[in-house]
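Consider the subject:
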Amino acid sequence: MKIKSGQKIIFIGDSITEDLRFEDEIGLGAGYVRYIHDYFLVKHPRLNLFIENKGISGNRIIDLYNRWNEDVLSQKADWISISIGVNDVWRQLDKPEIEQFFPDKFESIYRKLLDSIQQSTNSKVIMMEPTVIGEDIDSEGNKRLKSYVEIIKQLCSEYNTIHVPMHQSFITFLKQNSNKKLTIDGVHMNSLGRMLMMNVWLNSLGFD
Protein backbone atom coordinates (compact mmCIF):
# COMPACT_ATOMS: atom_id res chain seq x y z
CA MET A 1 0.00 0.00 0.00
CA LYS A 2 1.43 3.32 -1.06
CA ILE A 3 0.25 6.91 -0.69
CA LYS A 4 -0.40 8.47 -4.08
CA SER A 5 -0.59 12.01 -5.38
CA GLY A 6 -3.70 14.00 -4.51
CA GLN A 7 -5.00 11.56 -1.92
CA LYS A 8 -6.92 12.46 1.22
CA ILE A 9 -5.84 11.31 4.68
CA ILE A 10 -8.07 11.62 7.74
CA PHE A 11 -6.57 11.38 11.22
CA ILE A 12 -9.10 10.51 13.90
CA GLY A 13 -8.52 10.07 17.61
CA ASP A 14 -8.45 11.77 20.98
CA SER A 15 -6.62 14.81 22.40
CA ILE A 16 -3.24 13.50 21.24
CA THR A 17 -4.56 13.80 17.70
CA GLU A 18 -6.60 16.97 18.30
CA ASP A 19 -3.64 18.82 19.86
CA LEU A 20 -4.87 22.43 19.46
CA ARG A 21 -6.59 21.91 16.12
CA PHE A 22 -9.53 24.08 17.17
CA GLU A 23 -7.12 26.95 17.83
CA ASP A 24 -5.45 26.53 14.44
CA GLU A 25 -6.77 28.54 11.49
CA ILE A 26 -6.33 25.60 9.12
CA GLY A 27 -7.50 23.00 11.63
CA LEU A 28 -4.40 20.83 11.78
CA GLY A 29 -3.28 21.73 15.29
CA ALA A 30 0.25 21.64 16.66
CA GLY A 31 0.72 17.90 17.10
CA TYR A 32 1.86 14.92 15.10
CA VAL A 33 -0.77 15.54 12.41
CA ARG A 34 0.75 18.96 11.71
CA TYR A 35 4.25 17.47 11.73
CA ILE A 36 3.22 14.82 9.19
CA HIS A 37 1.49 17.45 7.05
CA ASP A 38 4.59 19.65 7.07
CA TYR A 39 6.88 16.70 6.35
CA PHE A 40 4.99 15.94 3.15
CA LEU A 41 5.04 19.60 2.11
CA VAL A 42 8.81 19.78 2.56
CA LYS A 43 9.89 16.32 1.42
CA HIS A 44 7.20 15.31 -1.07
CA PRO A 45 5.44 18.48 -2.27
CA ARG A 46 4.38 16.86 -5.53
CA LEU A 47 2.14 14.45 -3.66
CA ASN A 48 -0.17 17.40 -2.94
CA LEU A 49 -1.98 15.53 -0.17
CA PHE A 50 -5.15 16.69 1.59
CA ILE A 51 -4.75 16.04 5.32
CA GLU A 52 -7.56 16.55 7.81
CA ASN A 53 -7.49 16.32 11.60
CA LYS A 54 -10.60 14.81 13.23
CA GLY A 55 -9.22 14.36 16.73
CA ILE A 56 -11.41 15.31 19.70
CA SER A 57 -10.11 15.54 23.25
CA GLY A 58 -11.37 12.92 25.68
CA ASN A 59 -12.56 10.49 23.03
CA ARG A 60 -12.73 6.79 23.72
CA ILE A 61 -13.61 4.04 21.28
CA ILE A 62 -17.35 4.61 21.84
CA ASP A 63 -17.00 8.28 20.91
CA LEU A 64 -15.36 7.35 17.61
CA TYR A 65 -18.22 4.93 16.99
CA ASN A 66 -20.83 7.63 17.68
CA ARG A 67 -19.34 10.09 15.17
CA TRP A 68 -17.98 7.57 12.68
CA ASN A 69 -20.48 8.14 9.87
CA GLU A 70 -20.14 11.91 9.85
CA ASP A 71 -16.45 12.30 10.57
CA VAL A 72 -15.07 9.28 8.70
CA LEU A 73 -17.31 7.32 6.33
CA SER A 74 -18.91 10.38 4.72
CA GLN A 75 -15.52 11.97 4.06
CA LYS A 76 -14.57 9.49 1.31
CA ALA A 77 -10.92 9.54 2.36
CA ASP A 78 -8.28 7.45 0.65
CA TRP A 79 -6.61 6.79 3.99
CA ILE A 80 -7.97 6.65 7.54
CA SER A 81 -5.46 6.85 10.38
CA ILE A 82 -6.90 5.80 13.75
CA SER A 83 -5.37 6.55 17.15
CA ILE A 84 -7.45 5.47 20.14
CA GLY A 85 -7.14 3.63 23.43
CA VAL A 86 -5.42 5.98 25.88
CA ASN A 87 -8.67 7.32 27.33
CA ASP A 88 -10.26 3.86 27.40
CA VAL A 89 -7.58 2.98 29.95
CA TRP A 90 -7.13 6.39 31.61
CA ARG A 91 -10.83 6.63 32.51
CA GLN A 92 -10.49 3.32 34.36
CA LEU A 93 -7.97 5.06 36.61
CA ASP A 94 -9.38 8.54 37.09
CA LYS A 95 -13.13 7.95 36.64
CA PRO A 96 -13.81 4.33 37.61
CA GLU A 97 -17.46 5.14 38.34
CA ILE A 98 -18.40 5.75 34.68
CA GLU A 99 -19.09 3.11 32.04
CA GLN A 100 -15.82 1.48 31.10
CA PHE A 101 -14.59 -0.02 27.85
CA PHE A 102 -12.45 -2.91 28.93
CA PRO A 103 -10.51 -4.91 26.31
CA ASP A 104 -13.36 -7.17 25.17
CA LYS A 105 -15.75 -4.27 24.60
CA PHE A 106 -12.99 -2.15 23.05
CA GLU A 107 -12.25 -4.91 20.56
CA SER A 108 -15.91 -5.45 19.71
CA ILE A 109 -16.49 -1.78 18.90
CA TYR A 110 -13.21 -1.44 16.99
CA ARG A 111 -14.26 -4.39 14.81
CA LYS A 112 -17.48 -2.56 13.97
CA LEU A 113 -15.50 0.46 12.84
CA LEU A 114 -13.23 -1.63 10.65
CA ASP A 115 -16.15 -3.62 9.22
CA SER A 116 -17.93 -0.40 8.28
CA ILE A 117 -14.85 0.83 6.41
CA GLN A 118 -14.62 -2.39 4.43
CA GLN A 119 -18.35 -2.40 3.66
CA SER A 120 -18.82 1.28 2.81
CA THR A 121 -15.53 2.63 1.46
CA ASN A 122 -12.37 1.86 -0.47
CA SER A 123 -10.26 3.54 2.20
CA LYS A 124 -7.00 2.07 3.38
CA VAL A 125 -6.56 1.92 7.14
CA ILE A 126 -3.65 2.86 9.39
CA MET A 127 -4.01 1.65 12.98
CA MET A 128 -1.85 3.34 15.60
CA GLU A 129 -1.15 1.74 18.93
CA PRO A 130 -1.93 4.04 21.89
CA THR A 131 1.14 5.84 23.20
CA VAL A 132 1.68 5.82 26.98
CA ILE A 133 -0.01 6.76 30.24
CA GLY A 134 2.85 8.09 32.31
CA GLU A 135 6.52 8.01 31.44
CA ASP A 136 7.19 5.32 34.03
CA ILE A 137 7.06 2.26 31.79
CA ASP A 138 5.77 0.20 34.73
CA SER A 139 2.91 2.56 35.57
CA GLU A 140 -0.52 1.04 36.10
CA GLY A 141 -1.74 2.80 32.97
CA ASN A 142 0.99 1.30 30.82
CA LYS A 143 0.36 -2.15 32.29
CA ARG A 144 -3.31 -1.91 31.35
CA LEU A 145 -2.53 -0.52 27.91
CA LYS A 146 -0.75 -3.75 26.94
CA SER A 147 -4.03 -5.60 26.33
CA TYR A 148 -5.25 -2.81 24.05
CA VAL A 149 -1.98 -2.80 22.13
CA GLU A 150 -2.27 -6.55 21.57
CA ILE A 151 -5.85 -6.16 20.34
CA ILE A 152 -4.74 -3.57 17.79
CA LYS A 153 -1.92 -5.81 16.59
CA GLN A 154 -4.34 -8.69 16.12
CA LEU A 155 -6.91 -6.55 14.31
CA CYS A 156 -4.21 -5.18 12.02
CA SER A 157 -3.34 -8.74 11.05
CA GLU A 158 -6.94 -9.80 10.55
CA TYR A 159 -8.00 -6.75 8.56
CA ASN A 160 -4.73 -6.34 6.66
CA THR A 161 -4.20 -2.75 7.79
CA ILE A 162 -0.99 -0.83 8.38
CA HIS A 163 0.23 -1.25 11.94
CA VAL A 164 1.98 1.68 13.63
CA PRO A 165 3.90 0.39 16.71
CA MET A 166 3.52 3.60 18.66
CA HIS A 167 3.37 2.16 22.18
CA GLN A 168 6.41 -0.04 21.74
CA SER A 169 8.35 2.83 20.18
CA PHE A 170 7.58 5.05 23.16
CA ILE A 171 8.54 2.34 25.64
CA THR A 172 11.80 1.69 23.78
CA PHE A 173 12.63 5.40 23.73
CA LEU A 174 11.91 5.78 27.45
CA LYS A 175 14.10 2.79 28.30
CA GLN A 176 16.98 4.24 26.32
CA ASN A 177 16.50 7.91 27.29
CA SER A 178 15.24 7.93 30.85
CA ASN A 179 16.21 11.59 31.29
CA LYS A 180 14.23 12.79 28.25
CA LYS A 181 10.54 13.68 28.48
CA LEU A 182 8.07 12.97 25.66
CA THR A 183 4.99 14.48 27.29
CA ILE A 184 3.98 17.51 29.33
CA ASP A 185 1.88 15.50 31.81
CA GLY A 186 2.45 11.82 31.15
CA VAL A 187 -0.06 11.71 28.26
CA HIS A 188 -0.07 14.84 26.09
CA MET A 189 2.93 15.34 23.85
CA ASN A 190 5.69 17.89 24.01
CA SER A 191 7.61 18.66 20.81
CA LEU A 192 9.85 15.61 21.22
CA GLY A 193 6.85 13.33 21.65
CA ARG A 194 5.21 14.84 18.58
CA MET A 195 8.39 14.29 16.59
CA LEU A 196 8.60 10.66 17.70
CA MET A 197 4.97 10.06 16.73
CA MET A 198 5.58 11.58 13.30
CA ASN A 199 8.67 9.46 12.76
CA VAL A 200 7.05 6.17 13.78
CA TRP A 201 3.96 6.88 11.63
CA LEU A 202 6.04 7.76 8.56
CA ASN A 203 8.37 4.80 8.98
CA SER A 204 5.37 2.47 9.20
CA LEU A 205 4.29 3.71 5.77
CA GLY A 206 7.75 3.39 4.25
CA PHE A 207 8.93 7.01 4.50
CA ASP A 208 12.30 8.02 5.91
